[in-house]
Amino acid sequence: MKKIFKTSAMGILAALLMGNSVNAFAHKVGLIDMQNIYSQLPQMAKIEQTLKNEFAERRQELEKLQGDIRFEAEKFKRESATMSEEQKTALRDKIQNMQKTLAEKGRPLEQEIKQRQNQELAKVQKLIFDAIQDVAKKGNFDEVRVKETTIYFNPDKVSDLSNEIVEVVSKK
Length: 172
Description:
mainly alpha; 3-stranded parallel β-sheet; 6% strand
């Protein structure tokens, strides 16, 4: 009786383990490389160009101010030996005021550019996430992981969906 019980228990345990291993093999995993996706998307180049155009005038103004500061600093180095103390003080004050103006205009511009970049990136991320869900559903994937956060994966058992995601998002 004990022998039959042990044999039956072992048979049931083996069947359960086999069932679990079959389910483990049925788990379909996809992988995406976000850096690769972002680098291939035409939307990213479009965003870059849009932001460049949007802030071009203000950037040129700051670049001109930087050039003026460099010019005045070089002038101070060249001519300080022949300048009076009043002239040196006046030129130092002028350079410091120009640097202060640059900082006062530069910081808000940087923040505004970052804010606009984040707004545009959020739109692209939404497109990417929607595309991931569409591709995963169509391919009957149980799970999609980000390559950058995955320590190890077997390339024979995991599908790289990055190119499909780029294709879908590029059409939008």
